[in-house]
Write a structure and sequence with these properties.
Elements (H helix, E strand, L loop, with lengths): L1 E2 L6 E2 L15 H6 L2 H22 L13 E13 L2 E12 L5 E11 L5 E14 L4 E9 L9 E11 L5
Antiparallel strand pairs: 1-2, 3-4, 4-7, 5-6, 5-8
Length: 169
């Protein structure tokens, strides 16, 4: 005879389960039939699925937190004419000093005359433009020109927005 580990009643030496309290006596059986193991078998896959869904719908890093680290290092104006009309393009270099790769970069460009008055504004969303972390790249943004070529003397370029390129969607 031996003593049950749960109820302390005397039970047969070879008993795997106590006839009084129904507790399993060997350690392997205790582990395999423990309710916590059954709960883990159910909870772990559900947790994995929830984490997967959360990562699918993650909005990524907020560009506003990194906007001072994504800068236009140099730019120049290029004026031209096409079949569809007069154009103005801004060519330049952009540098990403942040640890986040960005895509869908939106450029905001202001054009000024000789007196420094704003004469035109342009916003351009570059859909296929990707800027890796800690990298520089060239860019070109072009618009239809609405005023005479002589009015476009100065310009200012800034990055208005971008999307975290590390996301799935």
């Amino acid at each position: 005879m031996k003593i049950c580990k749960m109820c302390c009643m005397e039970i047969p030496e070879k008993a795997r389960k106590c006839p009084h309290c129904q507790t399993l006596q060997d350690r392997l059986s205790l582990v395999l039939y423990h309710p916590a193991l059954a709960a883990m078998i159910v909870v772990l896959p559900i947790t994995a699925v929830l984490i997967m869904f959360a990562s699918m719908f993650d909005k990524g890093k907020d560009f506003e937190l990194y906007k001072d680290q994504v800068i236009v290092t140099e730019s120049q104006l290029a004026l031209g004419d096409t079949k569809s009309g007069a154009t103005i393009a801004v060519l330049g270099t952009i540098k990403n000093n942040s640890p986040v790769p960005w895509e869908k970069i939106q450029f905001h460009i202001e054009f000024f005359d000789a007196q420094g008055r704003r004469i035109d504004v342009g916003n351009e969303l570059e859909y296929d433009f990707r800027l890796s972390a800690h990298e520089s790249s060239s860019f070109k943004v072009s618009f239809r020109r609405e005023f005479p070529e002589t009015n476009y003397v100065k310009h200012a370029v800034r990055v208005a927005g971008a999307k975290d390129a590390g996301l799935r969607w």
